[in-house]
Amino acid sequence: MTAMTSPSAQTPPVAAHSLHTPVIGWFEQHARDLPWRRPEAGAWGVMVSEFMLQQTPVNRVLPVYEQWLARWPRPADLAAEAPGEAVRAWGRLGYPRRALRLHGAAQAITERHGGDVPSEHAQLLALPGIGEYTAAAVASFAYGQRHAVLDTNVRRVFARAATGVQYPPNATTAAERKLARALLPEEDERAAKWAAATMELGALVCTARNEDCDRCPIASRCSWRLAGKPAHQGPPRKGQTYAGTDRQVRGRLLAVLREAVAPVPQAALDAVWEEPVQRARALDGLVSDGLVEPLADGRYRLPMS
Question: Which of 78, 92, 123, 189 has the most CB within a 10 Å radius?
């Protein structure tokens, strides 16, 4: 079998059906028992998990997810509260604008769909804060529909198994979308299982580093492995830094506001970071993003509307 060297290939170099059975079979044996995969999670539980899992590992999401669903078991429950309460409950998951987006989606679901997460892909995509990936994921995982679900893990599996490169491009390309559609099983239920299975394979086996090919159900068909695992040819892949960044400062400022029961004076925020210019820039960014609300008396609070 000849490995393809470019992710712009028009057709997968491996027969799609030859991948479906081993990958889905592996998933049925090895899938983690995660609360959002259980039937009782429902579409709302799936949606909450998809927001939380963006750029955040499962072990950090689990406790926050459980607390969130216990407090807000339906979209209407969240929509009835101030957006600042979503930010508070988000805790230290990071990227807290996701909390505001989820709150906005809950409001739209309540107003437009009677409080039930819509099943139609177009209606999901029309919700605030819902992008291409999340709409496909909810339609697939919650409603068993046939959609290409392309997160980082799936894209890496496809890049290696089907196109013979170590890593996918930094941003999802039209060629990746076309390949993902070509690899989808025809039946809805099997396509939904395939979406979950390829995601799990990338998370547990075909990882970004130290991939475990001995455990991979399609190692014998993997174009990258059969080509001798050629090294990544693109720009160096740099890990994200956190210490000393504006993200760290924003996190510390938000921590003060999350823990406060009343609006916080400027002095309480000044105490969390010594460098005044960076601290002011981080606070201004939080206000601009709608995560912090400044009051006329110089105090600050989480947003109320």
Answer: 78
Spatial CA neighbour of 83 closest among 283, 257, 269, 210? 257
pTM: 0.90
CA distances from 12 to 16, 140, 222 (A): 7, 22, 11
3 state SS of 247: helix
Measured between alpha carbons, how far is 32 from 164 in angstroms, rounded to an integer? 27
**97-146 pLDDT tens trace:** 999 999 999 999 999 999 999 999 999 999 999 999 999 999 999 999 99
Task: Give the integer Cα–Cα distance in Å for 150 and 194.
Answer: 12
CB atoms within 10 A of CB 59: 7
* SS3 call for 264: strand
Confidence of residue 5 (pLDDT cuts 50, 70, 90): very low
Q: What average pLDDT score do residues 270-288 get?
A: 96
Helix (H) or strand (E) holding 300, with range, is strand 300-301
> Which of 303, 292, 298, 295 minimizes the C-alpha distance to 267?
298
Amino acid identity for residue 188 in this structure: D
CA angle, residues 177, 178, 181, in degrees to nearest 5: 85
Specify the pLDDT at position 14. 62
Classify each residue of 60-92 as buried b or exposed e, where b means 16 or more C-beta atoms within 10 Å of its C-beta. ebeebbeebbeebebbbebbebebbbbbbbbbe
Q: How confident is the model at residue 239 (pLDDT cuts 50, 70, 90)?
A: low
Q: Which residues touch 121 (CB under 8 Å, ≥6 apart)?
A: 135, 136, 139, 145, 147
